[in-house]
Amino acid sequence: MVAPVPGLQRDRPIGVFDSGVGGLTVLAALEAALPGEEFLYLGDTARLPYGTKSPASVVRYATQCASALVERGVKALVVACNTAASAALDALAARFPGMPLIGVVEPGAAAAVAVSASGRIAVIGTEGTIRAGAYQRAIARLRPDARVTGIGCSVFVALAEEGWTDGPVVAQVAHRYLDPLFAGPAPPDALLLGCTHFPVLAAALGALVPPGVRLVDSAATTAQAVAALLAAGGCARRGRPGDVSRSRFLATDAPERFARVGSIFLGRPVAAGEVELIDV
Ligand code: DGL
Fold it and tell me: Whose CA, among 63, 72, 225, 230, lies 20 to 30 Å from 188?
């Protein structure tokens, strides 16, 4: 049993986790939005992918990841994995009462609703995320007349983890998943990347969708939501001009691979020596 962090300590790091390196796309937005904050990022690389696992397994993995971060003294938790947020957010809230907690699904839904004029929104994510229906519900809460189509695109996770972000293989897989979405008489005007692995494929996917379709992901809106949550709780660091954020990295397997592939997702180099191997 892990006790929640007592109180809200400004100078503690913000915990962020994902099944692997995908959540680094969210970390990049957090670093940009919250200069002066420190982040502790955990990639559960030993057990990736989460997207094809049962909800019970994902809840167990997410609870173990969150526990590892709470034990290390984080002041807030960001579930930077749509699959884990879809399956486990309620379980995490119950397990860590009082811990500020944010998943990527609500912010992602808000981003999609904000750009869609027609209310026809396509969500692509892992099998688990789409099956859980969390995006469909979150979008309906914000815009009850929205028409949401969800497609599980688990192969995109493998491509992104391989560092294959463009080229003919990506295009072929993307056509197979996306073409049916836009073939009907009333196609969506927004494509929500409902998996934190997908933003690295955004340029390739954007080139294949019909003109006018807006691609959105949850990174920037999640960062805004975290900033608002910290401010409301009085636990944001008091940044000074010129402050930069700092991140530390934990992985449950293959730290050197995490560093190599993670650099693509974070958009800056990560050295293997910066990644600590842990067991959860
Ligand atoms: N990055 C995870 C997400 O946002 C999915 C990757 C996986 O299947 O583990 O859903």
Answer: 225
Question: From its phi and psi, is residue 252 left (phi > 0), alpha (psi between -120 and 50) or beta?
Answer: alpha
Give the C-alpha separation, 226 to 140, whole Å.
22
Q: Is 45 in the pocket of ligand 1 (CB under 6 A)?
A: no
Query: Which amino acid is residue 87, in one-letter code?
Result: A
Active site residue 195: yes
Active site annotation includes 235: no
Look at residue 235 in the predicted model and tell me its pLDDT.
86
- 246 forms beta bridges with 38
Region at 247 (left for phi over 0; alpha for psi -120 to 50; beta for the rest): beta
Q: Quick: pLDDT tens for 195-223.
A: 999 999 999 999 999 999 999 999 999 99
Fold identical between 14-103+220-277 and 106-218? yes
CA of 207 to the centre of ligand 1 (A): 23
Domain ranges of the chain: 14-103+220-277, 106-218
- The answer to whether domain 106-218 has CATH 3.40.50.1860 is yes
Mean pLDDT of the chain, nearest integer: 93
pLDDT of residue 3 exceeding 60, the answer is no
14-103+220-277 CATH choice from 2.60.40.3080, 3.40.50.720, 3.40.50.1860, 3.40.50.2300: 3.40.50.1860
Spacing, Cα 51 to ligand 1 middle (Å): 6
Any ligand 1 atom below 6 A from CB of 219: no
Atom of ligand 1 nearest to the CA of 53: 8
Whether the per-residue pLDDT at 186 is higher than 90: the answer is yes
**Among candidates 195, 188, 194, 193, which has minimal Cα distance to 215?**
193
